[in-house]
Amino acid sequence: MAMDKVRARGRLALIFAGVGWACSAHGQIDPIKRELIQLGYNQPVQGKAPLSGYAFYYLNLPQFLQTNLTLRLAVAPVYLDTELGVGQLLGPHTDLGIGLHGGGFADSYAEIRHGKFIESESFTGHGGGISASLYHLFNPGKMIPLSGVFRVENHYFVYERDDDTDDNFALPEDHASWNFRTGLRWGGIEPTMSPEFGLELSAWYEAQVRTDSGRYGFNGDRRVEPVSHLFWARALLSYTFTNWAHHIAVSLTLGGTAETDRFSAYRLGGLLPLAAEFPLSLPGYYFQEISAKQFALLGANYLLPLDLENKWALSFVAAAAVTEYLEGLEQPGNWNSGVGAGVRWRPKNTFQLSVGYAYGVDALRNGDRGAHSIGFLLQWDLEAAGRGLFEPGEYPIRSRGLQRLLNWGQ
């Protein structure tokens, strides 16, 4: 999505999926101590692409220094995102969050057209900023919370050329962006790899107002819009059958834009469920391969236990999307779909690992349809505490720095 700034070129893009505030009977500040390590990785079998994954440590610490303060801290290679929540600051059901984020490679951009990674038109971006958020609970005491969110964020972008960026390709101007988001969420889902239960209906609007816009690229052939508007909504159900331990998750996400550009378009593709608050997954595709002005995405996941202890399970995933492409990034046909299968190993409740294969049914590769990828997901819960049933979180994509630190792919 627009929040999902895009990928460092030619390297493993290490995404930070920061976990935000979970709904509770007390408002939007998460009252549960959480300590998680999350890893995810997608590897295309064919074609060259900015390989993608995430790696982050997340800590949510209620009663930080005093009873009404909660510290949320998420750390990824060369990137930090933190927010201090002040409970009941503006009333018994209204909380305030003050956030700070920053680091390297989070705002890089990878150009992908017709299933091909265009390195000569891709570049690295760094950035950081501050935010202030209000979280209001409209129906205290209800089992399924109805929450409102209003956030103001200022983020500054700095761009630099990659080794393979064309000498004649002009980079966008460094600039700041004021982002204003508001939304309603009924229910929610936990920030885990395969949450056992969850239910959500939500609707959102975001405006991105940039201090410096204008032309860039080859002879100014593309533009940074001064203002972009985004509208999206999601319906989601995640359910585990008590007697069988079979698990099913179904989601429908709709999105539209006005005055969009390459930095605010929705990006669909890949299979990284914690890469964003609203992951736009298409199995078998490159991560964020499709750039869309409007889309409708339907996805489903099924887990089939293989033993009585549920240590081993087969996983199946499928997704399909109808898209209206961003100008300049169109491709034949508006339909994109993919399927996948894998194995999950969960030796204990605090640790699980999934490995799998995915096939992009409609992905373009060298003029033909069909693409293959493999990947894995790992979760280690260091604070295996009881979990609430309806606890939404937020996952701003941020850091991709591990590749640069380790100098992989050179």
Average pLDDT rating:
86
Q: Could you say which overall geometry the principal axes of the C-alpha atoms support? A: globular
Number of strands: 21
Helical content (DSSP H or I, runs of 4+)? under 10%
- Strand/helix succession: EEEEEEEEEEEEEEEEEEEEEH
The CATH first-level class comes to Mainly Beta
The N- and C-terminal alpha carbons lie at a distance of: 29 Å
CATH topology: Porin
The total of helices stands at 1
Second-tier CATH architecture? Beta Barrel
Low-confidence stretches: 1-27, 385-410
For the CA atoms, what is the radius of gyration?
20 Å
Q: Strand content of the residues, in percent?
A: over 45%
- List the domain count as a whole number: 1
**Category by helix and strand content:** mainly beta
CATH homologous superfamily? membrane protein fhac: a member of the omp85/tpsb transporter family
What strand line-up does the widest sheet have? 2-3-4-5-6-8-9-10-11-14-15-17-18-19-20-21
Biggest β-sheet strands, sense, barrel: 16 strands, antiparallel, barrel
Please describe the topology of this protein.
Layout: E1 13-15, E2 34-44, E3 52-62, E4 69-76, E5 79-86, E6 94-103, E7 109-113, E8 116-137, E9 146-161, E10 175-189, E11 198-210, E12 214-216, E13 222-224, E14 227-240, E15 247-258, E16 266-268, E17 290-305, E18 312-325, E19 335-348, E20 351-365, E21 368-381, H1 402-406
Parallel strand pairs: 1-3
Antiparallel strand pairs: 2-3, 2-21, 3-4, 4-5, 5-6, 6-8, 7-8, 8-9, 9-10, 10-11, 11-14, 12-13, 14-15, 15-17, 16-17, 17-18, 18-19, 19-20, 20-21
